[in-house]
Each structure stands twice: as structure tokens, then as C-alpha cells.
Amino acid sequence: MEATETERPESTALRVALPGWLAALRSPVLLGAVLFIAASLALRALILRDSYFVEDDLLFVGNAYENDLTLDFVTRVHKGHFMPGAIALTWVLSRIAPYDWLLVAGVTFVAQALLGVLVLRLLRTLFGTRPAILPPLTLFLFSPLTVPAFGWWAAAINAIPLQLALALALTDQVRFTRGEGARYGWRALAWCVAGMAFSTKGVFAAFLLYALTTAFLGDRETGWIRSMLGEVRRHWRLWSVHVMAIAAYTIVYLSRMGTAPGEGASVPKPGVAVDLVSRMLGRTFPSGAVGGPVTWTPTPTGGLADPSDLMVAASWAGLAAVVVVTVLYRRRALRAWIVLAGYLLFADAIPTVIARGSYTALVGAETRYVADAVLVLALCLGFALLPVKGETGAYRRPLPASSRLVAGLSAGAYLVLSVISIETYRATLSGDRVRAYLDTAAAQLAAAPDNVVIYPTPLPDDIVLPWNGERRLSNRLLAPLARPAVRVRMAHPEPSHEARAFDRNGRLVRMSVFGFFATPGKNERCIPVVNGAAVFPEAVSFGGPATAGALAYTAGRPVSVTVEVGEERIVLNLQETPLGLIHFPVRGVSRGIRIVMDDPAAPVCMTGVALGVPVAEGEQPSPP
Question: Which keywords has UniProt assigned to this entry (predicted)?
Fold first, then answer.
């Protein structure tokens, strides 16, 4: 019998079609970019882990529970900032869950991740998918200058949306200049307006677009000045609307300045202004631009840049070398550095001087005031090194063979220095104090009965600074932690024999009054009552929510007395209690207090009268 060979069917290869975005990761450049983005986010996650609510963050939560989401509310100026979008965002997040750091940090983290992706897209749109876009991307992702604003919620709601708007506007502007459609120009305008809604620096977005368009994206061969004039002639409608949007924003801002009296724009002191700018542009920005400052001065909101003189000198030397080399080899590189210098001066330095230059130059060490310039720095570095798509004759002379090695070593050194700076900054963070205080206050409010009477007291100085005035009172900042019934009573405390106040650790304790205090004279058991009243002309009431009085007494039966402070009349119902003490709110502003016995024959003996500010028993008020 003959053996026969059976034929096997040909094997078929299994092919799986990957999604476009995943298939793109086959590109080493894109894969490297994604890994850089992921690594930067890992570092920033540690920053968020060690950060917590601080200072203005608490004010935003208090504002959210004191106001409805109205046009009047979102257009109020906050410490010189006109940012309706940011205020609306803080209102929504606060109303979803007050003082929920996980929620706030999650939103911040997602926004930062989106920003990294959008900046990568912008660099690819400008220069193509080439290895040379990784250094500018790395500079942006790992810059220590952006980290303090990222970890502080009140700064992040300005800085991150502004950078998102800039990245989106510039991407659409590039597509508009390449003739892909007029709609991209109008979309770029819309993103500029969106940036203004979150930060006053958004008004400079249009100027940045115009400068980069005329320097690199439009007619490059006719000269920069001619390119500027030609751009206005060709697209005068678009740029006119940009100007009108800026004008409208400015008019609304100026009309709403009265909502934040005494804050924001002011006439700077020359000495302070010079010192501020020299710190900001002479030390903080240059050291941060190369990966510094390495060392920080701890503050309640994190750290202030405190580079050593050696770090500053090395930074300037490195930056000068980059500028000189790029100008020597790259045509039009000087334009990029002029754009960066102009942005730093007009968008960062001058507005900061106008807003903060009347009281301290130390704000020049706060990196949040130049955080937005990091994106501009990364783009200008790209323009100074690389030709944009379609650009010919970009270089004056051939690049040396060692240029790639030098660029790689420089990027590596920057990465190492930046990681060190970010980690030393993280060492200055500690949200334990505020977290413990708010957790304690929340637990105390949850356990308090519905009829609890809590008088407003300022939060401790190491949580909210005294210069915030009445905005730092507990009836505003801690009320969001209370259930609605208690929240209302916190806003309107009433006379009480069991008044409570928050101590410096967030516990509800017995209340005391610090200020004027009167007791019976020598050899007297009771304060004298003449013609049915006791008068204390030396007592002073400053009024407002943080003024209260106290009356210590003994009474044989329930009786009422009327306390007169200026035009204000407060009726107190006295009764026998273990302490024989009643507290009462005082709103009127006046000198002198008069206590009238409604029944002169009643057996009442006043043993003490106080008028001043409410404080936790055993504590003293913080200085104003």
C-alpha cells in the first residue's frame, strides 16, 4: 500500500488593527515623549500628595458657601485677580465636596496631564515629529518654576488653564497661518478669551500669538516689521476683534475693582519695584530656566526660590551660551529671544509690580508669577533651534557634528537638576497642620447639636494670615463643614449661656471675650446700678461679626436686661445657670455700653461685664 501525504492548509497570520493613537507610539519620538509626560506626572503626583489647602484656598471654599453662582459673584475681583472662570470652577468643586483635597488634586492632575499632551501636539504641529522636539518638551514638563503653582490650588486655577488656553490658541493659530481655514483663527481667538476668564495674564495671549505669527509663521523673508504690518493688513478683522476682546475685559475689570477695595493695582514704591524685578528676572527665572533653583525658603504655601549666587551666575552663563550659539547658527533665532524677553517684561514683571510692588519685593521669589512663561520659554527654545514646517534656509551655517551630543548632555543635566529642585521643593511642603485642623473642626461640627451657638473667631495665623481680615473668620471658612442647620446658626449667633468658639486646634470649647472688662469695686459684691442702669463709658465696640459681649451675674429668678451699645439694643434673658454667664453678639460701632435693668426690683447681681472679640477660653486673639 502506498502512503499518501495529506496537504495542510496554509497558516494565516493574525493581524490586529491598533487604534491610531496607540499605533503612533511605534514612533520612538512619540514613545519617548509619552514616557517623559508620564515621568513628570509621577513627580507631580508626589507634590499633590504632600500638599493641601492653604490660605486663599480656604477663602474660595468660604466664598462658595456664602454666595450663589451668579454673574455678580463670578465677576468679583479677588486680590487683584479678575478670573470669572476660576471662581466658577472653585464654586463648583467646593459645592460638590468642601475641603476635599482628593477631588481638587484629581482635577488639577488631569488638567496637567492634558496640558502635557497639548504641548506635545503643539510642538509636533510646529516642527514635526522629530527627536529635536524632546528637549523643549522636557524643559516644559520638568521645569521647577511650574511646580509651586501646580501644588497650590489657588495658583493652579490660574496657571494651568492659562497654559492650556495658550497651547490650544497657538495650535489653532499655526493651522490658520498655514491656510487650513479661517475658522482656526477664530478658534484661536476663543481660546485667548478663555485664558482671560481664568487669569488676568490672558490679555497678553493675543500679543504672543501676533509676535510668533509675524516672526515665524507668516511671511518670514520680508523682515519682522514688514511682516507685522502685512499681517495687520491681511487679517485686520481678526486682530481687531482680539483688541476689542482685550478692551472689553479691561473695562469690566476696572469697573469691578470696587469689589476688592484696597487690593490689586496700586502705585508701586520705586525701591520695592526695582528689587522685585531684579529678584524675579535676575534670579528666580534664570535659575529656574536651567533646572534650579535647587534651594528654597520654606513658607506656609510651599517654598520661595532661593538660589545661591553660584547657581545664579551659572544660570546666566548657560542661558547666554544658548542665546549666542543659536543666534550664530539659526536664522531668526534672535526673534525668539526677543519674544521671550518681551513676554517676561510685559506679561510677568510689570503686572506683578503694579499688583504687588507697593509692599514687598519678596514676591519676586515666588515662581508662580513666572510659571506661565515656561511654556513661552519652551516654544522660543524650539524656534531658536528648529525650523518650522515649510521653512527653508533656516540655518546660517551647517550645524557641527557634536550638536546632538551636546543637546543630549544638556537635556540630561537639566533633567537631573530639575528633579533635585522639585524634590527639595517637596521637602518644604506639609499639609499636616491644616489637614488636622480641618479634620478636627469637621468632627466637632458633626458631633455638635443643632442648637449649638458658635461665635465667629479668626482661624489661626499659621492657617490663614491676619491681613485677610473678616474673610478668615470661622463662620465663613468652617461653616462649609457643618450641616445646613448649624451653618445658619454659625452665621447668626445669638445670646447664649453655652456659647462655643473654635480653638487653635479646631476644637469647640467654651468662649471668652477679650477686651474691655469691668468687675465690682473694692469691697463691693456687685457692680453698682444707678437709676436702674450700669454705664461703662470706657468700653469700645468695633462692631462687625467678630465683636461680642459677656455678662457674669447671679439672679434669684428669671429676668431680662437690655444692653445698649450705640443705637443697638440687645435683650438678654437671665436665668440661674451653673456658670451665671451669658454671651451676646454686638454689631454696633460705638464707645460706651449701658446695661438697663428691665425690672429694677429684680434680684440681679452683676459680677462682671466684658466687651471685645470672642476667643476660645484660655487663648488670646491674634494681632490684626
Answer: Membrane, Transmembrane, Transmembrane helix
Residue 44 lies in a domain: yes
3-state secondary structure of 326: helix
d(C-alpha 35, C-alpha 23), whole Å: 15
Q: Edge-to-edge strands of the sheet including 500-502? A: 500-502, 508-518, 604-616, 548-555, 581-585
We report the CATH number of the domain holding residue 470 as 2.60.120.260
> Is residue 516 classed as helix, strand or coil in its secondary structure?
strand
Same domain membership, residue 412 and residue 459: no
pLDDT reported for residue 345: 96
DSSP annotation of 283 reads I
Q: What is the mean pLDDT of the chain?
A: 91
| Residue 450: CA count within 13 A, CB half-sphere | 2
Answer yes or no: is 2 within a domain.
Answer: no
Say if residue 293 is preceded by a cis peptide, omega within 30 of 0.
yes
Q: Which domain holds residue 511?
A: 450-616
Give residue 23's pLDDT band: very low, low, confident or very high (50, 70, 90): low
Residues 169 and 262 in one domain: yes
Angle subtended at Cα 213 by Cα 212 and Cα 214, rounded to the nearest 5 degrees: 95
Domain end marker among 369, 399, 431: 431
Residues 220 and 332 in one domain: yes
β-pair type (548-555, 302-305): unpaired
Instruction: Name residues whose C-beta falls within 8 Å of residue 582's C-beta, 6 or more positions apart in sequence.
Output: 495, 496, 497, 550, 551, 553, 572, 574
Q: Hey, what's the cell of 550? A: 459677656
Helices and strands: H and E segment counts in the chain: 23, 13
Distance, CA of 589 to chain centre:
35
- The reply to whether 469 and 400 lie within a common domain is no
- Is the C-alpha dihedral spanning 414, 415, 418, 423 positive or negative? negative
Alpha carbon of 181 to those of 177, 187, 408: distances in Å? 9, 10, 37
- 388 and 477, same domain (yes or no): no
pLDDT single digits (tens) 539-567: 999 888 889 999 999 987 888 999 999 88
Residue 527 inside a domain? The answer is yes
235 DSSP 8-state letter: T
Q: How many residues does the chain have?
A: 624
11 found inside a domain? no
Count of domains for the chain: 2
Question: What DSSP line would sit under 10-41, residue for residue?
Answer: PP-----PPPHHHHGGGSHHHHHHHHHHHHHH
262 and 401 assigned to the same domain: yes
Q: What percent of the chain has pLDDT over 90?
A: 76
Residues 416 and 462 in one domain: no
Asked if residues 492 and 451 have their Cβ atoms less than 8 Å apart, the reply is no
Same domain membership, residue 175 and residue 78:
yes
